[in-house]
Write a structure and sequence with these properties.
Number of strands: 8
Structural class: alpha+beta
Strand content: 5-15%
Largest sheet: 4 strands, antiparallel
Helix content: over 70%
Bound molecules: adenosine-3',5'-cyclic-monophosphate
Length: 581
């Protein structure tokens, strides 16, 4: 194949295979992601037939992770993240430590060194974002308290992995690494404390930027672009912000793409335009997250199932039973309910992207034997496939608990859960209220100015951004005859008088004025004076021209009104013309 088309080939074949096998999986009543994984295995180097470019596929998969995490961030506020910290931080840390220890124990049994055990254990201890989110989405749990806790937990795991990825090379020698990778890492190494300090400093700097600067800059940028009225530019900017922050965060602050993208979403969620950003990025998100599963499938060498069946089973048991049991116990120990423990446990009973990165790094550093990487991959692909079953098991267990120990089930952890749910509910209510206010404003706009009912919702939203509010007191002259036209006025409340040679014309809420000079490019044709306390929405000349050029029907309606007014004025000035009629 020509080298130049390998990207297109990878994307095209991935989409075609994923669509076909996803559909087949659905027909077999399996989750579509099983189909995507199979498609990936078929496209990988370990099976005959088409072999896609693995490096490209994994980069495309990373795009999927970025877009997905961005999407979650859009529906997550920083406050919610803080609300779940009491359970997510201790939970994730304890789980990583315990699951890693289990991994070390297992690898000791196989006679691997401590370094290999550590990489192996760490790899098994982190769950995949993509899989977790898909699972929560499918069950409509993302917005529930349990879902919030699971996602918060995952974010902490993500942060811990940033540290792990930085520390591993620094610690490689001490951990007994062999091979060139270890030597290289040791040669360029700096004191461990310094490495940790720099990493923490970078992550801290990123957090400060994300919390303080982001919420100011990003919504402002988005509004700026939305005011241009170009849909295409808006979608592009949303993606530019998501991918730009993700990439920048990785390059500058050393945090993962996923984490960068998540915070890009969180800061954007502060904007009124966040729902539009979410809708715009969803199709890409769906398409690219499929590529994630393909790339996992491609890495998988099925022969490991025959070479090391026991090791794979042991790793899988650790992921599915060990990790979930640990998570479940931690949740209960923190005095949260059984139901939450089961949801969190099922959510985390799988491994994915971080595990591959860690395993890859472990092999490069000479810490992890190659079969360790294969076992981790097998563990990942099997645990991802089985994950829906684990959720089903958790539901059965929940029902069982409920049936067997109804009073314990109902009362244990209820207090803490209720406090958390209330806090999350308040945060949600606040953001719902904000959305409602926004909707109300849009509705009011159309109610007051039926003229705008003829433009679509995006354009109405754009108008809200373009309008500049202005007020006037009784007697104040708003427009002076003979001046240049600088804007068009919509009366939201109060009343004005257009002072013509003959009787003045009174205009009330819902009416507009100042359009004639803008349309003709000439001078104001009359004085307009406020006769009450007035509130106006003003569209300045530049925005008027831009908006009207994109909405010809609206321009025609306004022009017709201006023509009628001009005719009326002419008639009033020369009443004799019609006097004979
Ligand atoms: P413009 O000429 O820009 O500034 C004065 C405004 O008064 C004018 O636009 C119209 O919007 C408004 N106006 C002029 N004549 C009438 C009329 N007969 N009835 C209502 N409004 C008018």
């Amino acid at each position: 194949m020509h080298h130049e088309v390998s990207l297109i080939a990878t994307v095209a074949v991935s989409f075609v295979f994923a669509a076909v096998f996803g559909y087949l999986a659905d027909r077999l009543r399996l989750p579509p992601l099983v189909g995507y994984l199979v498609a990936g295995i078929l496209m990988g180097p370990f099976t005959p037939g088409f072999i896609a470019d693995g490096a490209l596929a994994s980069q495309l998969a990373e795009m999927g992770v970025i877009l997905l995490m961005f999407g979650v961030g859009l529906h997550f506020s920083a406050k919610e993240l803080l609300a779940v910290r009491g359970i997510a931080v201790p939970g994730a840390i304890a789980q990583i430590v315990l699951a890693t220890l289990l991994g070390v124990g297992l690898s000791e049994l196989w006679g691997w060194g401590i370094g290999a055990g550590l990489v192996f254990g760490l790899s098994l201890s982190v769950a995949s974002t993509v899989v977790l989110l898909k699972a929560l989405e499918e069950r409509n749990l993302v917005n529930s308290a349990n879902g919030r806790v699971a996602v918060g937990w995952l974010i902490v795991e993500d942060l811990a992995m940033v540290l792990a990825l930085v520390l591993l090379p620094a610690l490689a020698q001490i951990l007994g690494a062999q091979g060139s990778g270890a030597a290289a890492s040791a040669a360029g190494g700096m004191p461990l404390v310094l490495t940790i300090a720099i990493t923490l400093l970078k992550v801290g700097a990123f957090a400060v930027m994300a919390i303080f600067l982001g919420p100011k800059v990003v919504p402002w940028l988005l509004t700026l672009v939305a005011r241009t009225g170009s849909q295409e530019l808006f979608t592009l900017s949303v993606l530019a912000i998501a991918l730009g922050i993700a990439f920048g965060a990785t390059e500058i602050f050393g945090v993962s793409f996923a984490l960068g993208a998540f915070f890009a979403g969180v800061v954007m969620s502060e904007s009124n335009l966040s729902h539009r950003a979410a809708a715009d990025s969803l199709p890409l998100q769906n398409a690219f997250s499929v590529l994630f599963f393909i790339s996992v499938g491609m890495l998988f060498d099925p022969s490991i199932l025959l070479r090391e069946p026991m090791a794979v089973i042991a790793a899988l048991a650790l992921i599915i039973f060990g990790k979930s049991l640990i998570a479940f116990c931690i949740v209960l120990l923190l005095r949260f309910p059984v139901g939450m423990g089961l949801t969190v446990a099922a959510s985390l009973a799988q491994i994915g992207e971080f595990s591959f990165i860690l395993a890859g790094l472990g092999v490069t550093l000479g810490l992890l034997p190659r079969e360790g990487q294969d076992i981790i991959l097998a563990g990942a692909i099997l645990s991802i496939t089985i994950n829906p079953l684990v959720f089903w098991g958790a539901e059965v267990l929940e029902k069982g608990f409920h049936y067997k120990w109804p009073s314990f089930f109902a009362s244990y952890g209820k207090k803490r859960h209720d406090v958390l749910a209330r806090e999350l509910g308040d945060i949600r209510a606040l953001s719902d209220e904000r959305n409602r206010q926004h909707q109300l404003k849009m509705q009011q706009l159309i109610d007051t100015f039926p003229l705008f009912a003829q433009v679509d919702e995006h354009s109405q939203e754009e108008l809200l951004l373009l309008f500049k509010p202005k007020s006037a007191s009784p007697g104040e002259r708003i427009i002076r005859i003979g001046d240049r036209g600088d804007g068009m006025y919509f009366i939201a409340s109060g009343a004005v008088e257009v002072q013509l040679d003959s009787d003045p014309v009174r205009l009330e809420p819902g009416a507009f004025f100042g359009e004639m000079a803008l349309l003709s490019g000439g001078r104001r044709t009359a004085d307009v004076v406020a006769i009450d306390f007035c509130e106006f929405l003003v569209l300045d000349r530049r925005d008027f021209n831009m908006f009207m050029s994109r909405h010809p029907a609206l321009r025609t309606a306004v022009s017709n009104m201006a023509r009628e007014r001009a005719e009326m004025n002419t008639l009033r000035r020369n009443p004799d013309k019609t006097g004979t009629d």
